[in-house]
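Thought: the user wants the 3D structure for the chain below. I'll pass the sequence to the structure tool as-is, report back what it returns, then summarize two notable features.
Action: structure_tool
Action Input:
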Amino acid sequence: MQLPAAVLFDLDGTLVDSEPLWFEAETMLVGEYGHPWSAEQARHLVGWSLWDSATYLREEIGIDLPNAAIIDRMQSHVVAGVQKAPPWLPGALDLLAEVRAAGVPTALVTMSHRQMTETVVDALPIGSFHTVVSGEQVSRGKPHPDPYLLAAHRLGVAARDSVAIEDSVPGATSARDAGCAVLVVPAAASVEGLTGVTLRDSLLGMSLAGLAELLNEHRAGLAELRRVQSGSGAGSSTGIAATG
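Observation:
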């Protein structure tokens, strides 16, 4: 079975269980301005770029700070929590270690900024990721495909030959639209209605062989879709020609 050309990992909610820390940061910041902040509102922001999240907090909630200041305040709180004891999600480190041991290129693709990515990468074995794409490195963040396309470009692989691991609708949409096979392990927010991806409850027990199988199924699905579309096109052309 052919291995993926690369495995691309999301960070928040995929490698580390950091979403509760983001919720704390949002609650404290919003509370300073006298506004309530619900779990539903927090889930709404899961997977968004930090810039878009800051814009929402400023324009919709009324946080009277520049976007950069909002991002710095929230991310500093999350980083402090992660530095105390990285809340690795079950199965994530084992899978990452297996992928790296097999020599398959890896990338960290996240909407968190450099302060957060460096904190997580520093807590991992040296060389865990060949490249890191963070939120400030792309003009269009998730759900746009740009972050995953940039990661694939840096690794010198085709996104369609890679597997992305995500937890949210914006992240999974980004990876799917870049052409990746996508494994989604939902964390803080619902992924109801998400299509074109593979869902799994946890990364526990997931292996590189499992990712390779997922990629092969993804390729088979794309091939079948092309076959159906080609057949439909041919049928339409034949019908038009016969009528003429």
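Final Answer: Structure generated. Strands lie at 6-9, 106-109, 131-133, 162-166, 181-184, 198-199. Residues 208-243 form the longest helix (36 residues).
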